[in-house]
Structure formats: structure tokens, C-alpha cells
Specification:
Largest sheet of chain A: none
CATH class of the largest domain in chain A: Mainly Alpha
Low-confidence stretches of chain A: 1-13, 222-228
Shape of chain A: elongated
Number of helices of chain A: 8
Oligomer: homodimer
Number of strands of chain A: 0
Chain lengths: 228, 228
């Protein structure tokens, strides 16, 4: 499907005029996505309107429609980009040679970064029901793929003896639930940074299946020092 | 606020005529709530209409409005009842003399039972944004109270040395996120029963903070036998 935002295609073609134009258009589209994400966060996806998004992006409504066909498409791209990044993080973790517990921790950290720190992931990430059927399908497929990637990490950890034997599917869902729920309670002006939350959740959620949990840290607030 | 569904008031007044009528009216209201919950689950809260709910409850629309002023009020009562029951479960656990890990497990089990098994808790539980401001406030207060009850259990476990020192607020939110997220993926016709899911999640989520996690069970699918 539509994917010009995520691929830097034809790396060998040099900076031709059309390539520069394409990049400029992509940058413009990304600006618009960020503007839309700000409006989604501020007003809620249901209440956000194309006029408000156009204003936020400093565009005329007509100009906005030149880039995106409607709110549905904007929401789709916010979710699609976020999932692409999470899938990349899961693949990077999987391919690394660090202990599986650390791989899972890295995935958890990336997940929270992309949903809480990165503008287009925030809020919009969970509003999947608001997408039209044809767009929703693609997002659901990617979400399923991501869930399977998390589950595969857990299964690998069990096989290697790093994790205790467990129901990997159920644990993966518990982890994703704990992470996705942060969107409901996290406030950018709250007491804890995203990094601190990520560190705490990663430690707690990995400890629950660690074969030698005594060696892992439990999230302790404030006293843990150093971390940000 | 409105609360005639939850209190069996005046227990000493005997079964007078008005008492019987009150009970009958409450039973009728509960039937309607269950019908509304079925419609919410089937069509989604946003798409559900009072006409559809009336049909499901075998009432004329006019008769339905005699009992409930609108969809908003129906949604409110579904959520209010569910939260009351969860708060009761948390209080029962807190007041018991079993180990704190088992108290927390009991709360987790009750939470899943009330949100997945009990009709009025399902689906509607998370759609808080759809409530009008005046109704939402009461629900948010109860949710906060419930979250604090879960947090207090964790703090108690830490004090007693049953749990490792941890950020109780963050762990409580992780637990509630993992539990609330089940509404998104649980299917009544799926492979695992609510009890099996509850058992698995309780073990995983408590093990993550247990002071002696080696002694606790990790959720293992199928092989665990006996449980249902």
C-alpha cells in the first residue's frame, strides 16, 4: 500500500530534480502528520477536524486535501509509521547478540518512545476503530506481525533457558497491554520521564518471566538515581 | 448520585409492597443493562442506538426511556456497576489474612471476571470518553480509587517483605494496563477460558515483583493441567 513516507527509495539515483521534489513533498507530508498528531492529542481523534488540522499545519484546507484525502488517511499514516518503527526495533533486537532479556527490554523501550515521545504515535495509536475498513486491515496486519515478533522473543528466551517456561502468547499480550495503556495515563508534564517509565516497565515485565529473576532489577522510583 | 442498582437499602423494613415494587423495578433495570451491554458488545458503543437497545430488551423505546434517560446513562451504569464490584473485590482481598501475593492474585482474577465474563463490564468498561462530563467525573473518581487500592496492596507486600522494593504506582498501572487490554483481544469463543487467562496473568504479574519469584509459578499453557 501507500508507503512513500517510509522508504528512501532509489538510493543510487543521485539527487535528481524529481528526487529533490519527492523529498520535499515527503517532508511536507511529515510536517502535516505532526500537525495532525498535535490536533489529535489536543482535541481527540473523534473531535478533530480537517479545518483545524489545516490551520495547525499553516495550510489552506484545499492545500491540505492535496496531500491527504481526509482525517482517516492522516490517522492511518500516524499509526502506520509508528508500527513500522516498532517493527524495525523488534527486528533490530532479534538480530542482535545481546541476552534475550535485554532484547525484550530494548523492544519495550522503543515501544514507549514511539508511542509517548514521538508525536505521531501518541493518542492516535489506539484509535484503530476509527479507520475505514480498507485502511484498518493493513494496520491490524502490522499489529499482528508486531505481536508475533514480541512473542517470538519470549519463546527464544525460554528455549535458551533465559526465561522460565511460560505461555508466550499470553505474556506478550500482557506486556503489550501494559505498554499501550501508558497512553491513557502518561502526561508529558508528569513527574516521570518516558525513559524512566520505560526502564521501570522493562524491568518489571521482564522479571516476571526471567529464569533468574533475583538477578534482575525491580523498578524503584527515585532511589534508582542515575537514570533519566 | 443515582445508585439504586447497587444498594439493597432498608434491610430492616421487611418486604412491604413498595419494597417489592422497588426490587422489581431494579430487576427490570438490570435486564435492560444486560441488553444494552449485549448491544454495546455487538455494535460498539458509538454505533449502538436506543431503538436497538429497546428491541434487545423487548421494550418499546418509550418504555426504555422510562427507565434510562439515554445511552449515556446506560453506559454509565455498566461502568459504575463494574467498578463497584472491583472495588468490593479489592476491599475483600485487603481485609483478608492470606499472603499479599494471593490478595493481589484475587484482585486480578476478579478484575478479569467482571470485565470479560460479566456482560455489563465487557466492552463498555473502557469507553469512558463517551460519557458526558458530569457522569464521567464519578467514574473517573472510582477508577482512581480502585487504582489506589491496587497500589496499596503492592505497597503492603513490599512492607511485609513479600514483594521486592518497587515503584508501586508504576507497577499498579502496568498490571491494570495488562488487565484492561484483555478486552481488546479476548474472544468468548477463543481457546482459553477467562479463568485460565486470569490464572496465567495473575501468576506472571505477581511474579514480576515477588521477593521470592522462584517459588511462584509462571503461566504455562496446557501443560499446567487441572486449571480451568
Amino acid at each position: 500500500m501507500v508507503q512513500f513516507l517510509n522508504k528512501s527509495s532509489n538510493p543510487g539515483s543521485g539527487k535528481t530534480v524529481s528526487e529533490r521534489m519527492r523529498r520535499k513533498s515527503e517532508a511536507r507530508r511529515l510536517d502535516i502528520l505532526h500537525a495532525a498528531a498535535r490536533v489529535f492529542r489536543r482535541s481527540g481523534v473523534a473531535a478533530a477536524g480537517m479545518r483545524e488540522i489545516a490551520e495547525e499545519a499553516d495550510l489552506s484546507p484545499g492545500n491540505l486535501y492535496y496531500y491527504f484525502s481526509g482525517k482517516d488517511e492522516l490517522l492511518f499514516f500516524c499509526q502506520d509509521r509508528t508500527l513500522d518503527r516498532m517493527l524495525e526495533a523488534a527486528e533490530t533486537a532479534r538480530a542482535s547478540t545481546i541476552p534475550v532479556g535485554d532484547q525484550l527490554r530494548a523492544v519495550i523501550r522503543a515501544h514507549l518512545h514511539y508511542t509517548l515521545d514521538e508525536l505521531e504515535g501518541a493518542t492516535a495509536h489506539l484509535e484503530i476503530d476509527m479507520l475505514a475498513e480498507n485502511l484498518r486491515r493493513g494496520i491490524i496486519d502490522k499489529r499482528d506481525k508486531y505481536e508475533l515478533a514480541v512473542r517470538a522473543l519470549i519463546t527464544k528466551g525460554v528455549k535458551r533457558g533465559e526465561f522460565a517456561p511460560c505461555d508466550a502468547a499470553l505474556v506478550a499480550r500482557a506486556i503489550l497491554g501494559a505498554l499501550n495503556w501508558t497512553v491513557r495515563w502518561y502526561r508529558p508534564d508528569g513527574a516521570q520521564s518516558v525513559s524512566a517509565i520505560a526502564e521501570g516497565l522493562a524491568n518489571y515485565l521482564v522479571r516476571g518471566i526471567a529464569a533468574h529473576p533475583q538477578e534482575t532489577t525491580v523498578p524503584v522510583r527515585a532511589q534508582s538515581g542515575g537514570r533519566k
